[in-house]
User: What shape does this take?
Amino acid sequence: MSLTRSQYDAVMRLYDRRQIEDHRIMEERRRKAYAAIPELASIDAGVADAAVRRLRGLFGLEPKETVDAGSPVQSGSAPSIRSRAQGESGALIQAGASPRLDPEDAEAAASPAAMSPEARKRSLLSQHGFPEDYLDPVWQCPDCRDTGFVGQKQCHCFRQAVVNLFYTQSGLADILQKENFETFSLDWYPEDLISPATGMSSRKSMEHVLSVCRDFATRYDSQQHPYLLLYGESGRGKTFLSHCIARELMNSAHSVMYYSAKELFDRLADLRFRSGDADRQGAADPVSSFDPEYLLTSDLLIIDDLGTELPNDFTKSEFFGMLNGRLSAGKGIIISTNLSPQELSDIYSPRIMSRILENFQLLNLFGRDIRIQKRMADSLGHT
Assistant: This one.
């Protein structure tokens, strides 16, 4: 789970908001309970006062208290009901009789004066129609008490908060509900369509591609070369499979950045050439939410439709720097493109292509255009 400082701070601000909300709920409950049962305020005040006096006693500022907070029994009073009962029951046991409190002591033991402050509060709440735990601390996650940590370890809710943040920042939350391994169908890849290059059917070829992509997602952390190049003609499922992998990794708390090649290089150009002008003019930075450093540090970077950007010296330089930086750091990359490896070689420099061909697993998606197939199926369904 790779987090930048800003991402970590964003998650911890979530816990700050949770704790503020917890406090607001507790104060509102306390206000309602005090209004309905004034005695509760007196009990809480007595508990707080006793706690202060005990602390003062620890520091030698006054004698230590020897009774429970809120108890009406003072030092030097008559023996307690419990001690009297224990003495009597001991005598009865020795005589072979069953121990039993006399009616007067049993009634006194159940009286409000004999209850602990906490038991008295719960009794009062119940008597007035409130749940007994109405004034107990409120937490959205009882395991970490809304701190995000159990001891020194991150709580399970912290991990989920990170997953939610990754979904939000990726911009893929909605599409991944529709495009994932559960919804991927091999039915769009026919058995009777044979590739001249491999002699395999479209269906058989895609079974292999799907298996590789599933394995890539499930064994991501143990892979030495987490790099995929998905290529093939438009509408063969490259973007869909990228989404499938992205969802699996984000669900396991991996950070994923997803950009189309055109959007990615446009943003980098904006950051490089326009943000300075915007600052000088006092305007808001249009790319303030774009963190180029995270292109190198996220667990997985997906570049979709490589080759649709306008190739020039700037885009080639940025692409090489990004590619080289992530390869050196062992950070995963998925590239999808409509171009064949040979066509990519015609656009990008030998040093770029050598890194791709040496490190990436190349997967060719062969078949018919799924978008056209779906449109034809829809049109037939409406006739």
